[in-house]
Amino acid sequence: MILSLLRRSGLVTGHIIADLGCGTGFFSLPAAEIVGDQGVVYAIDEVHEILQVLETKISEQGIRNVRTMESNLLATTIPNQSVDFVLMACVFHDLQRETLGAELNRILKPTGIICVVDWKKIATEHGPPIEVKLTEEDVIREMNDMGFTTSEVYEAGQQHYGIVSHKSPVSDHSFQDDK
């Protein structure tokens, strides 16, 4: 499911991806498979111990295209305009959006893609409290406020949704809010 979700969101061979809040690599490792030897996955997290778990997985699996970074997610050391694809899985609801928008605009190439996978605003056994969760419409509005154009919203399992946005406007596939 993760491979198809990433491909559906626009991740392809050769992309440079930043996985903000990568955790133990649930998305980073499949992303490494998609981008292949020509691509790079920056797996970024603020928690050293979590990155150590990911580094062990990378070593055990012989993966060579994942670079772990212990960093504030809103102030990474990724070079300016060097990233094709940013993934934020289950972290968008926690991030300060004004600072996030500046960092996304800084690291993304002009045609960069942003994929937000987050918790649906429903009561669930796992995940953050419902009061913290954002609706799909909330995320779209926030992305628009940061200057990004949303092109797709989709189901990402029973408890999650996926939202694909772009740094530059998308002419043929722009998301239109019917409200």
From TrEMBL:
Enzyme nomenclature, EC number: 2.1.1.163
N-terminal signal peptide: none
Domain Methyltransferase intervals: 17-112
PANTHER family documented for this protein: 2-METHOXY-6-POLYPRENYL-1,4-BENZOQUINOL METHYLASE, MITOCHONDRIAL (PTHR43591:SF24), METHYLTRANSFERASE (PTHR43591)
Enzyme class, spelled out: transferase
Annotated source species: uncultured marine thaumarchaeote KM3_72_A09
Encoding gene per record: ubiE
GO biological process per UniProt: methylation
InterPro entries (alphabetical): Methyltransf_25, SAM-dependent_MTases_sf
Protein name (record): Methyltransferase type 11 (UbiE)
GO molecular function: demethylmenaquinone methyltransferase activity
Keywords in alphabetical order: Methyltransferase, Transferase
